[in-house]
Every structure is written in C-alpha cells, then in structure tokens.
Amino acid sequence: MKKPSSQIKSRERVALSGEVFTAPREVKAMLDLVRKESYSIDATFLEPSCGNGNFLVEIFRRKLKTARALLREREREESWSSEEVGKASFFLHARVALSTYGIELQQDNVEEARARCLSEFRKSLKRSLKRDMSPEEEALIAGILKANLVQGDALSFKDATGKDVSLFQWSLGEDGTLEGRGIRYQDIVEGAPEQDLFNYDQFDEKGEWIPPETTHVGPVPLQEAFQ
Ligand SMILES: C[S@@+](CC[C@H](N)C(=O)[O-])C[C@H]1O[C@@H](n2cnc3c(N)ncnc32)[C@H](O)[C@@H]1O
Question: Are the C-beta atoms of 178 and 225 separated by less than 8 Å?
C-alpha cells in the first residue's frame, strides 16, 4: 500500500474533516503575500483551521527572527547586563506569542500545534541567549499558547463541550503588566453593530463596535500571569 504523504495523517481524516496540511513552500509563498506583517512581532494573526500548526510555526519563525534582531539592536545601544538582556528577551518573546492565535477542530492537532510552536520559542531563545529556556519562560510561553491556540469549531463557534469559543485580546503595558479581554469568536466574526443597535456601551467614541467581554485576566505582572 502507498504510504500517506506528510500532508495527510490518514485517508479517514481527510474524508472526515478535509485534513490536508499545506506544504512548507506554499505556506511561505502565502505568508509572503503579507510579508511585512508576518515579520512584525505585534501583528495579529488568527488562523481559524490551523491544523497542526504549519502556518503558525512559520509565522512564529518570522516574528521570532525580528524579535532576535530587535534584541541585538537594543543590546548594542544600551550596553545591558545579562539580566537586563534576559528580561527584554522575555518581554519580546511574550509579545510574539500574545498576538498570534489559532482555532482547530481536532484536539490532537491543537496539542501538536502548541508543541511545535513552543519548540520554535525554545530554538529562538537558544539562538539569541545561548541558553535553554528557564522554567518561568517555558511556563509563560506554554500558558500563552494554551490560551491562544484553542480547540473549537470555527463554523458553529462552539468547542467540543458546547461552550462558545473565546479568545483573549491582550495588552501588555510598558511596566510589564498584562491584561486580557475575553471575546467570543462569534462576536469577532459576526460583530455587526446592527445586532446590538440599542446597546450604546458597545460602541467606542468613534462609533466603532466593541465586542462584549466574556471574561477578564489581570492586570497582573507578566511573570505571574500563567503560573
Ligand atoms: C486543509 S487542513 C489545513 C490545516 C492547516 N491550516 C494547514 O494549512 O496545514 C484543514 C484543517 O481544518 C480543520 N477543520 C475542519 N473543519 C473545521 C472547523 N469547522 N473548525 C475548525 N477547524 C476545522 C481540520 O481538522 C484540519 O486540521
């Protein structure tokens, strides 16, 4: 029998959920269409059927490359101690993780995507700081990936337990304080003002619609956010 390619796990899964992964060459070519954003550490990416993370991994590779370049530049400018370099690296890596999201139907793919993305952070830290990730750094990045890469049905907007798929809009202050607004994925996709025409609280001063918040994280020091 012919061996399935690395783009499919099994014929059953292809039939069940259209699971055919995108090859690296196509992933790179597609991300090159938004090249500038893909290298910007704070650019928001959300992949609604992220599979085992082919696009997310490449997005992280690009953003992390920028994070390392920024770190080198700041190191030269500021003549930092190794502790200060470590702290700056911690924040830069957190920013990369906080702005990148994925939703995927199948739990095993979610786990695989999180593990592959975490491995990109490990490699990046090793390259920039010439050391392994500390347990604190590992807990932070793994925590963000767990919050941002979630199991869910991007069409029904529900997860496997029937709950609304919800994602956090994060803000990381200059002082290292993290805050997160939980927002329903359905509101992100279908957030048309006419649905809540008489709820004026949901419009900001420019008349733009603000999705209602479902849950809140923080404000909390970044180091303590995912312990
Ligand atoms: C064609 S694959 C693409 C995976 C990945 N984006 C890539 O390019 O390698 C489609 C993926 O979407 C997932 N999927 C199918 N229906 C979905 C749904 N309703 N919501 C979220 N994910 C879904 C499948 O499990 C599969 O992993």
Answer: yes
Q: Two tokens at 41?
A: 């550490």
Q: State which of 105, 112, 114 you would mutate to test the pocket of ligand 1, scoring each by most atoms of that ligand within 8 A of its C-beta.
A: 105
Q: Are 60 and 41 in contact (CB under 8 A)?
A: no
CA distance 140 to 134: 10
Which atom of ligand 1 approaches the CA of 106 most closely? Answer: 25
Say yes or no: CB of residue 58 within 6 Å of ligand 1. no
Domain boundaries, the chain: 16-224
Q: Report the predicted TM-score, pTM, of the whole model to 2 decimal places.
A: 0.91
Nearest residue to 52 (alpha-carbon basis) of 3, 136, 116, 122: 116
Q: Is 44 helix (H, G, I), strand (E, B) or coil?
A: coil
- The predicted-structure confidence for 177-216, as pLDDT tens digits, reads as follows 999 999 999 988 887 666 555 666 777 777 777 888 889 9
